[in-house]
Structures are given as C-alpha cells and as structure tokens.
Amino acid sequence: MRQKHGWVFPLFLNRSTLRHGEEMEVKLLNIGFGNTVIANRVVAIVSPASAPMKRLKEDAKIGNKLIDATMGRRTRSIIVTDSDHVILSGVQAETIAQRLVLDGSLKEANMSKQPQDLKI
C-alpha cells in the first residue's frame, strides 16, 4: 500500500486481501463517464434531491471524504461506501442500481450452471 495525501492506495487491483484476511473477488461498478467504484464497497445509492442528502454531501466535503465523479455535469446520484466516502455521479441512481443488480445476477447465473456429465 502507498499513502498519498491522506489516502491509502493499493498497488494493484485484482484478487487481494481486502479486510480481516478475507479474500474477495473485486468487481467494478461503472458509475458513468469512465468512472468505476468497487461494487463490494457500495453501501447505498441514493438520489441527491432531499435535504438530508444535501447535508450528507456537505458533511463529506468538510471531512475530505467527497469524490466528485460527475465530470462537470449535474449530480444525479450519490453513492455511499463502507469507508464513509460519498461519491457524486452524473448517472441516475436507478441506472447504477440496475448495473449492480445485473452484475450480481449474471454472476449467480454463471455459478448456478452445473457442468454436464461428459459421456465418452
């Protein structure tokens, strides 16, 4: 791990030990405009319209935990991670949630397929 400006960055991003010695497969979630987050770290995907979400955004900005991934566009969703980082995205919350669900359902579908018995 390498530390830069108070952030800790992993040197590589593949199968790695993430927490408490558990090995997990890293799945990336596309949040729009070429930006991705680690899907396993996402706690919530919410709409930014309500007052509590605006306060959450301001608190994260004050605490240096706000990541703006809107690429200069209007904020359409807020993503909260398990490290209490708040990520702003220019893609609708429903779209990101569908991407997260589709990725998980594809993985489950692939795992549920049983190999056919080979007859020689």
Q: Taking strands numbered 1, 2, ... along the chain, how are they ordered across the largest sheet?
A: 7-9-10-8
Alpha-beta classification: alpha+beta
Q: What summary fits the major beta sheet?
A: 4 strands, mixed
Per DSSP E runs of 2 or more residues, the count of β-strands stands at 10
Explain this structure to me?
It contains two helices and ten strands. Strand 9 and strand 10 form a beta hairpin. The protein starts with a strand and ends in an 8-residue tail after the last helix. The relative contact order is 0.15. About 8% of the residues have low confidence.
Give short descriptive properties of this protein:
two-stranded antiparallel ribbon; 120 residues; 2 helices; alpha+beta
Q: What is the gist of this entry?
A:
The protein has 120 residues and is an alpha+beta fold. The protein is built from two helices and ten strands.
Topology record:
Blueprint: E1 2-4, E2 7-9, E3 16-19, E4 22-24, E5 28-32, E6 35-38, E7 42-46, H1 51-62, E8 66-69, E9 77-81, E10 86-89, H2 93-112
Parallel strand pairs: 8-10
Antiparallel strand pairs: 1-2, 3-4, 5-6, 7-9, 9-10
